[in-house]
Amino acid sequence: MRKGYVYAEIEISDPAAYEQYRPLAAASVAAFGGRYAIRGGDPQVLEGDQGLSRFVLLEFDSPERAREW
Predict the structure, then answer these.
(1) Are 69 and 26 in contact (CB under 8 A)?
(2) E strand or H helix at 29, and its extent?
(3) Does the pLDDT at position 59 exceed 80?
(4) Angle at 58 between CA 6 and CA 29, to 5 degrees
């Protein structure tokens, strides 16, 4: 079965609000059977311009489940 993925690049402009958001986001992802495949900051750009400060890759059991999320 094919997996479904969601990739996001984000910029955190309000760290206090982000700390409140994090557990809500994790619960939402888990409710749809998703998992954090990659999440973090300080990306090392090998070519081109530096992107945003944080990135996340979510993995779901199927593309349909990713879309439902």
Answers:
(1) no
(2) helix 15-31
(3) yes
(4) 105
Tokens 């609000």 locate to: 17
User: Shortest CA distance to 7 belongs to which of 50, 67, 58?
Assistant: 58
Cβ distance 32 to 15 under 8 Å? no
pLDDT digits (tens, 9 = 90+) for 14-50: 999 999 999 999 999 999 999 999 887 666 777 777 6
Instruction: Tell me how far apart the alpha carbons of residues 23 and 3 are, in angstroms, rounded to a whole number.
Output: 24
Place of tokens 């402009």: 13
Please state the pTM of the whole predicted model. 0.81
Task: Assign 6 to helix, strand or coil.
Answer: strand
